[in-house]
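Input chain follows. Return structure tokens only.
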Amino acid sequence: QVQLVESGGGLVQAGGSLRLSCAASGRTFSTSRMGWFRRAPGKEREFVASIIWSGGSTYSTDSVKGRFTISGDNAKNAVYLQMNSLKPEDTAVYYCAAARLGSAVWSYWGQGTQVTVSS
């Protein structure tokens, strides 16, 4: 099993920045990629960004490109999401997730951290 704990959420004004962190513990060697998802009020959970440990390739959804940056530290079993130029529509609960080696499924999830962007 892998346990994920997010931190860094909070309240920020539009145009501001936040940095989310996700610490992984347990069988972290069994994961191939980690990512961030979010769920806004009244909406379904959506993909935000991900990073593949082998090679370090990153991916992000179009709505955050140029504003959010995902990074990771494999040695520390941690992944980060730097969020700049935040908009009210970025308000959501942000979840960290991890996938097992050889799997396309996001098997492990954190408890989430609230990000609120005021206008």
